[in-house]
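Re: the multi-chain job from yesterday

Posting the exact lines I submitted so nobody has to dig through the queue logs.
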Amino acid sequence: MKILVTGGTGFIGSHTVVELINAGCEPIIVDNLSNSNIGVLDGIEKICGVRPKFYEIDCRDKDALDKLMEENKGIDSIIHFAASKAVGESVENPLLYYRNNLVSLINLLELMKKHEIKNIVFSSSCTVYGQPEILPVTENAPIQTALSPYGNTKQICEEIITDTVSADGNISAILLRYFNPIGAHESAEIGELPIGVPQNLIPYVTQTAAGIRECLSVFGDDYNTPDGSCIRDYINVTDLAKAHVVAVKRLSEKLNKKPVEIFNIGTGKGLSVLEIIDVFQKVTGVKLNYKIVGRRAGDIEQVWADPTWANTELGWKAEKSVEETLLSAWRWQEKLGKK
Ligand code: UFG
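And the result, structure tokens for all chains:
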């Protein structure tokens, strides 16, 4: 089964390509390499023994995508990861985010009609829930006004897909709302490759442990949580990748109950920043230099998933412990060294 994976050399994309190959699918990667590098293909090949087809294409380039689909007839589904994802950057440069994230999706949906591609799995985010009133958060929780242009693009993309599916009648979609993806492949052949100073917690933790950063700043210990630091649902990237395989199979085998289905992809457990630091130190034996600083603007206090719907209806469940996940992130960092 041919699956077009946009953003397929990125963090979540590359892990999904591995799981697709393991499941006997034929992924075709599209990536503009703006936030990843071609060496990721070597990592995938080492893990799977197969080098996936790769096209260096920016999804804003509709003609290039059109040509690719002409060349690769019979694509069953698209998994659309390719998007800009830095919250802070999106506040500074909103048009870049609206252009990248919306135009890419519109191009793909228009081309799906033309090339009769029936299924799309979309990378959405728990950011659409904002600070939920009820925790754990289910898929039925209200969508809240986005706190950043990035978050807004996720909401708008969900709406674009829903409207297109309802007008089209032939296309089906699954929207996966990710919680916080972390970790690396257990082989340490692929992982997260943040460019510059990491904005996310785990790469900052591993870089600090490796001596690349002097000290981790914990953004706030005065939240209304048991230890005062923010709580998130940290999901292993391989577990997350497997959710995509299940989703494309569900669409391909027409097991979906509605033309657009939405699933929370999380573990169901919330961990605080201080708990993450504690577990990291325990499993790696590395002492982490950290200090408490003020809150980061725009941070949600606490959010974790109710994954029951994904567990029962999609038939997917997070399997890996946070201990092995943090260890995998550390193994990957050790492999990268001081880069
Ligand atoms: N944190 C620190 N220090 C750091 C970095 C992060 O204390 O150096 C804290 C944050 O304040 C937050 C937690 O660690 O409490 C997690 O922060 P991340 O930046 O790793 O993740 P976020 O939950 O803020 O954001 C992530 C994605 C966004 C997405 C959002 C919700 O990065 O793209 O989840 O889906 F929008």
